[in-house]
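Input chain follows. Return structure tokens only.
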Amino acid sequence: MPLSLKSLFSHLESIAPLELAESWDNCGLLIGDDNQRVGTILLALELTPAVLDEATRCGAGLVITHHPVLMKPVKKLLTSPSSETALATEALRRGIQVYCAHTNIDIAWGGLNDYLCQLLHIKVQSPLVMENVDELYKVIVCLPRDEDALESISQAMYKAGAGVLGPFTHRAFISEGRATYKNLDDHRAKMNEECSEFRLEATVHVNDVENVTNAIYMTHPYHTPPIDLIPLKTGRASVGLGRIGSFEQPKTLPELVEQLKKTLGLTHVSVANGGAEQISQVAVVTGSGGSLVKQASKAGADVYITGDLKYHDAIWAIENGLTVIDCGHFGTERIFSDLMEKIICDAFPTVTVVKSSCEANPLQVW
């Protein structure tokens, strides 16, 4: 059965919210209509004429890319092949929707940087560069000591955005206790009564508080659910670009280089050797992260894995004892389609997901 794009986009944006994207970026549905349903999705690093033709051949109604096909504000929609809007207008003509997940999925927990760390067996500690520091609340609700009620209310809360903390979702604390009450409508009641209840606690982002409380009211068996909302003044959901982490066992530089080439399918990498011998702490930024060498050094990284390292940044890194491994922009982001395939297929196993077969690094080694 064809998949609703609204359902798909809602799921993708629960993992990589659009508000995480950098201010200069352009993410989300860029071409088409989210009221459509599709049976086949094509995944690609970016939309090119070859990718668009591939989407047509495989019958894909949606192409999901990492790089936006439209970045700057559009004043004219021209169809000539040399125009900036040629691909967008051709996608519209063919009835193909185009969705972009770019810096939002770079920054999000469980996104592209985390996926690369997972492939390299790096234990993530924190973002490399803090982008957003968002206020959290703790929502506490008491409910009857009934497993069905607990399941119904907790799942509704999770779906509305509760229970997200760092890289974890569906996180809550559940306890049991006794509740006392006196029914003011019952004039015969002369003393408090008692009942057994569950106490369910979860963190919630300030932007999701209303949705979560509404979800509780919709599923709670009590006419007036007992809900507490407590601002966590010292509790913050920290997200940001890149990751800093560590290997369980130190590696040598040759070992790490070979691991990177094997994992990312590369024939070569470029290394600015700052003298690292035993590598434990690692910084990672997929895509164009060469300008963040100072942040990687400040974070205590022995090695920084990224792409698009510039000459003077390489000199600075070497002089300051930081080893940088440049796997290329394409090399560090080619795993985008693998990650997106997993995210979509885990949630919507009946939809057909195709990874583009016509992508290649535009920079070749001769």
